[in-house]
Amino acid sequence: MNTLNQFNQGLRDGVPVIFGYLPVGFAFGVTAAAGGIPPWLVVLISLTNFTSAGQLMGATLIIAGAPIFEIAVTTLIINIRYVIMSMSFSQRITPNMPILEKMVAAFAITDEIFTVASLKKGEVSFNYISGLVTGPYFGWSLGTLLGAYATKILPLAIQQSMGIALYAMFIALIIPAARESLAVMVVAGISVCASIIFKVTPLLDTLSSGYVIMICTILAAAFGAYFFPREEEDLT
Amino acid sequence: MSIQTTILAIFAMALVTFIPRFAPLAFFNKPIESKYIRSFLHYIPFAVLGAMAFPGILFSVQDIRAALAGTCAAIILAFFNKGIMTVSVCAVVIVYAFGVLVK
């Protein structure tokens, strides 16, 4: 009974996330399929990866025909942020959770689901996480499915306009955080400038986008850590 | 890229997405001590998002002027804390409208 209540509460808390994931998943589906990845493989990406920035980068590199090693390293760097969330999460979940349940909980960690789960009071149980992840996972995959197959029927002009959707989402994530924190603004600013420099400098512009993002990220985050080290507080 | 290579790439991506989510949950019971390493990890998402967003967004659609219009709309809406969905959908609409209006 209590188990079911926890699951239902998770399900309810996940509803707002679904509405964010459906359109963004759709845009991902359109963009990846329009780039030439077969629709069923585009859906497979969402089903197995369940992450936004990493997926877009990975799909972009697949479309560009990058070597698998580069795809893996770049995606790993983009996903390193999950380490900090997972660590924070480890303090919140039911103690001694079995390993299989931990695997499900780990798969559920996305920027948005992590935020919702962190805001919940008290212990985060396996049943709660399962409920919480169900809706968004379904929304993300369904959005991708619809987007990937919509490329066959959607007018080309609309498909092409959707290329901006995920980038706009990145802006929607950065700017509010940069407004709150000077350090975040500086870190994001350095990263943006570095990545523009790579794009416009002869020779440097021949470096593939995966490595450029990796270099800019490490440079900017290291600068932030050195000049704006965060004092002891919560891990989020 | 062949289907086989693509599938291999997708599973490689899935693996490197899962590991950072799972490893700390499975093996760490206490937080990292060094405040520099923790700060570095904390700043990574913003650095990633910044480098991915720019200048990529300007080349995300065919007409760079349309991309610029969409970017401005996204920045303004994001500045006023509109959610992910509003910002994304509005940017797409602006790009599309630009294409229709400016021929």
Describe what this molecule looks like in 3D.
The complex is a heterodimer of chains A (236) and B (103). With 236 residues, chain A is mainly alpha-helical. Chain A contains 12 helices and no strands. Chain A has 2 domains: 2-162, no CATH class; 181-227. Chain A has helices spanning 2-34, 39-49, 53-64, 68-79, 81-90, 99-107, 111-119, 126-150, 156-161, 165-180, 182-200, 209-227. The radius of gyration of chain A is 19 Å and the shape is globular. Chain B is mainly α. Chain B has 4 helices and no strands. The longest helix of chain B has 25 residues, at 3-27. Chain B starts with a helix and ends with a helix. Chains A and B meet through helix 1, helix 2, helix 3, helix 4 and helix 5 of A and helix 1, helix 2, helix 3 and helix 4 of B.
Q: List unreliable stretches of 5+ residues of chain B.
A: none
Give the helix/strand class of chain B.
mainly alpha
Strand content of chain B: under 5%
Termini gap of chain B: 35 Å
Biggest interface goes to: A-B, 105 and 80 residues
Summed up:
The complex is a heterodimer of chains A (236) and B (103). Chain A has helices at residues 2-34, 39-49, 53-64, 68-79, 81-90, 99-107, 111-119, 126-150, 156-161, 165-180, 182-200, 209-227.
